[in-house]
Structures are given as structure tokens and as C-alpha cells.
Amino acid sequence: MTTTGAHPRFAEALDALGLGDLYPRIRRFPDATRTAAEAAAAIGCDLSQICKSLIFAADGVPVLVLMDGASRVDVGLVRKELGAEKVTRADAGVVRETTGYAIGGVPPFGHRTRTRVLADRGLLAHDVVWAAAGTPHTVFPMAPAELVERAGAMLVDVRERTV
Fold first, then answer.
1. Residues contacting 15, CB < 8 A, separation 6+
2. Cβ contacts of 30 within 8 Å, gap of 6 or more
3. pLDDT tens digits for 2-28?
4. Helix (H) or strand (E) holding 36
């Protein structure tokens, strides 16, 4: 593991947001941290401390949903939150076109295009969460409230409820 390797677009976003102090905290792993489970295992944290950045299409318009790694997004709640008729997971092409990153490396901010961002309130249950730094091998830590603010997200409850 090294502390370098953020995607160039993500590095530009850090600079633009005045977050250069994050560079030394970015971790690069030799094995992929593409999934929340892989990332949690590599970091040695709880699965719920991983912040997943997921792209959905709400009536065909991309929207970013930030969700903790232990939970699933309830698309019905996203649909209701956005007042959309149909919400589906975006395919890999739409994810790359919208964000500039491949699935498994999408960070919570620093995207190619501006999208609406929803953050599940469950992220705030932790002091620190870990998110992708633009590649499937890099992650960074951040206080969830700051992450939500930097992503320009609206706090919502869109976690799938288990029975």
C-alpha cells in the first residue's frame, strides 16, 4: 500500500475544493477495492464505513447516491425523493460518461458532469467513512458530514429496510 495514486481528475477536484491535505491520507492497495467488501477488508474497517458512490438514472437523468457499504439503495425511495416515475441503476457506459470514472472507482465528488446528489443519512453514523479516490485501487477517509457537504448532497433516507 502506498499513499499516492488518486485519479488525476479526482486530484484536480481536491485542489479545487482546497482539500490538498487529503493527499497523504489517500491509500493505494495492490489488490482492487472495487467493491465495498474488498475495500473494508483492505482498510480493516467495518463494511458500513465504506461510502459507495452509485449512479442511477431517474427518468433517464443521472443521479449520484451515496450509501454506506453495508446497505442497499431502495430505488422506490429514491424515486419518491426525486419525484421521478422510473429509477434504474445506470450501466457502466453511463457511469463513465457522467462521472469520468469506471464503476468501482467512482468518488463522491470530482465528476466530469454536475449531477444531483443524494446521501443516505446512515453515513452520518460514523466518525469517518472511506470512499473511492477515482480508481478501483485507491480510497480516502473523510468525516461523513464533510463528505456530504463537499459532494453537494442532500441528506435523505433511501436505504433499503431489512425485515
1. none
2. 1, 137
3. 345 778 889 998 999 899 899 899 999
4. helix 36-43
Report the distance separating Cα 1 and Cα 121, nearest Å.
Answer: 31
Pairing of β 87-89 and β 50-58: antiparallel
Given this model, what pLDDT does residue 29 score? 86
Q: What whole-number distance in Å separates Cα of residue 61 and Cα of residue 36?
A: 25
Beta strand 138-142 pairing with 129-132: antiparallel
DSSP 122: G
| Alpha-carbon distance values, 100 to 20, 29, 40, 106, 124 (Å) | 20, 21, 24, 8, 27
Q: Do residues 27 and 138 make contact, with C-beta atoms less than 8 angstroms apart?
A: yes
From the centroid of its chain, how far is CA 142?
Answer: 12
Calpha distance 82→113 (Å, rounded): 19
Question: For residue 34, what pLDDT is reported?
Answer: 79
Task: Cell numbers for 56, please give them.
Answer: 442511477
Cβ(66)–Cβ(153) below 8 Å: yes
How many CB atoms within 10 Å of residue 23?
Answer: 15
CA distances from 121 to 47, 68, 102, 155 (A): 16, 9, 25, 6
How many Å apart are CA 100 and CA 105, to the nearest integer?
Answer: 10
